[in-house]
Structures are given as C-alpha cells and as structure tokens.
Specification:
Blueprint lengths: L13 E5 L3 H12 L3 E6 L14 E2 L10 H5 L1 H5 L6 E2 L6 H12 L3 H27 L7 E2 L3 E5 L2 H16 L6 E5 H7 L9 E5 L3 E2 L2 H14 L3 E4 L3 E7 L2 E6 L4 E4 L1 E4 L5 H5 L9 E10 L9 E3 L4 E6 L2 E10 L8 H11 L12 E10 L6 E4 L5 E5 L5 H18 L14
Parallel strand pairs: 1-2, 1-14, 2-10, 4-18, 6-16, 14-21
Antiparallel strand pairs: 3-9, 5-9, 6-8, 7-8, 11-12, 12-13, 15-18, 15-19, 16-17, 17-18, 20-21
Helix pairs in contact: 1-8, 1-11, 5-11
Amino acid sequence: MPAVTPAGTPVPERVAVVGAGMVGLATAWFLQERGVEVTVIDRDGVAAGSSWGNAGWLTPGIATPLPEPAVLKYGLRAVFSPSSPVYVPPSVRPDFLKFVTGFTRHSTMTAWKKAMGALVPVNDLSLQSFDLLGEGGVEAETYEAKSFTAAYRTAEERQTLLEEIEHIHASGGDITFDVLSGDEARAIEPALSDEIGAAIVLHGQRFVNPGAYVAALADSVTARGGKIVTGSAVRGITDTPTGVLLTTDQGTSEHYDSVVIATGAWLGRLAREFGVKRVVQAGRGYSFSVEVEDLPNGPVYFPAARVACTPVGDRLRVAGMMEFRQPEAALDRRRIKAIVESARPLLKGADLDHRQDEWVGSRPCTADGLPLIGASKNPKVFVAGGHGMWGITLGPVTGRLLAEQMVTGVAPAQLAPFDPTR
C-alpha cells in the first residue's frame, strides 16, 4: 500500500520536474529532502532559460510586484519605444492583449499593496531557504552585499524608492537602509559617476552568480540520486489512474506519480489544460559584462534607468529592460544599446564598448505580479512559475513550500495567494 498524506492523498514516490532553472531544480532538491525520487527534464539544459544571465540578486527586501503605478507613468508612447526601460511591442495576439489589459488593471496602488502583502511571507523565508541548500550540500556561495546601492541623479528621483520602502514596511516587510548623498555613495562605490547626487544603501541583502549557482544546485540534485535529462522537451502530460504519463519530442514516454511544471515563460503550454488559465508572458531582460576600474562591493541599481549591475567574478554584469515579447524572439541589439546609453553617464571607469556575454532571457510574468505555485485542477499536476524578476530570489523558498504541499497534501499558508487556478 502506498503511503498516504494526512490529507488522504497518496504521497508521490517518483516525481518529474519539467524545467531545469532555479525554480525547478530547487523544487527537485527539496522533494529529495522529503525522500522523493526525482527526474528533472529540460528541452535545452541547466539554467538555459532566464536563470543564467540575470542580475543574480537575492533581495527579499525589495522583491515587489511588477505591476506598479510607476509603470503607468511612462505612458503609451514611451512603452512602444525600443529605447524605453519597459518596452511593449504592438501585438494583436489575444493572450498578449489579455496580459497587457490585466497588467494595466493591476498597476494601481491598491492592487500593489495587496500583492505586496502576499509576497512578504515568502520573502521572509527566502534567504533562510538558500541557507538550507548550503547546509544540505549545494556547493555555491551566496555573497553578502556589503553594500547594495540604489543610485540617483537627484534627491527628487530617490523619493520614489523611499515611498516604496514605506509601503513595504506597512505590508510587514523587513528592510533597513541608509540615505546618502552622492559623495557619500561614491566613497563606498567609486564606480558611481559624478552624475550621481543621491543614493540609498540597503542592508541585509545578498547576491549570487546565477549560472554558477544553478549549475551547483543541479550537481547536488544528481549527487543525491536525482536524474537530469536535457535536450528533451515534454510534449504532453496524460492523466492515468495511478499517476501521469509524460511524452517527449524524442518519442519516449514515462510514468510518474506526479509532475511539477516549472517551464518559466513557457509554463502555459503544458499547464493550461490542467486549469491554469493565467497568461504567463515573457518579460525579457538583457545583460552583458564589462571590465570596470573599481569593481563594486555588491549590486548597484539605477532605478530611474532600470539598470541593475552585479559583480560576477572580476567583471561587472550590467542588466536591464523589461521587454514584453515572444520568448523565442532573437536578441534585439537596440535593447543592448539602450542599456549602454542609460548606464554610460552613471558609471565611472566601465568599458561599455567592449562587452562580453551579451544575453537575453525570458522572465515569466503574470498580470497580477504574483507567481503560480501549487496544485492545478489535477491533484497530480503541480505548477511552479510566474515569478517575474524574482525567480532567483524566490526559487528556493518556492521549492521548499511546494515540496511540503506535495508530500503532506496540505498547502502551506504562505502559498494561498499563489494558487495557480485563481
């Protein structure tokens, strides 16, 4: 007789996780902690989606909903411009129009506060979840951000983030910070140019080299007996009396007790038939790396330009943009140029004309800014995705809480707002 959860459902013994990014691999790892045999399947490879080239921030203090009133301030003319930090190419695809309409509807302060209140409980567990991975043998470092600097040209520009921090505190979020002048900020981070006249330094945040971290997480999953299959796309999930049958584009099929769909921006393709109707739209981000005379001690953020910088090895990764486009679209060189031109006056000693590792990745975004985590309409089919910009920060806590739900049959309270069938 198979084991039964307190909720009366069978405890899955063999689980397939579709997607080898941070979210999928963290889910696999925490399932292993609970004695489950896991197979991770990815059509490309480990960290092949949005996990590799992103900014690598572990910043629960500012993990906020993507739809926000500030987005609406750009206006339609701005968001249709390829040089805008938020770019919405015109499209008549029904799912795209549904996403944009919903995103706009949720870009109000009332909606933002509600979503922020839902995120705070998982934000609070996020760094602890990284620590559990480290204690459990994941051989990758999370770096303390000795300084996490949000830099602005003027004190007036800075007011937007100060007000947002007030709202985060009002929602129960825990974040401490210092308000600095431009000269005080340059004393900490000499890479800031003389254009910077005001700054905020956030405390208690961390960062990682995301590609290296996810690769180490994959190594830990395999070292603990898990199987990772790459170069194989799951084409179908069929319900059976005893579990689910997965078929791939390689013509293979295999039976599992349960499946977790963690395919990022492609999540809807497999999850839709199981009652997950929310559109998951690709919010594409771009990055590259450069040499810089003074490598920062931690992340540097230029919120007005929406440019994020992170030390990765001995180089500075420069990332930015939110481009609502098809996930398979080619890298748009205009977007790289826009990041360069935004960053050039704000960074000192950065060789922005000799770039390496130019990259585009598709963040999975939802219209209400909240992820999709939990059971679908089918109790054997689970979903983990839609984290927007926060898949790295929230990937481990997502895997931890979802594994608990799958093995106990009871969804943790923190996951209630993220019901995939909402």
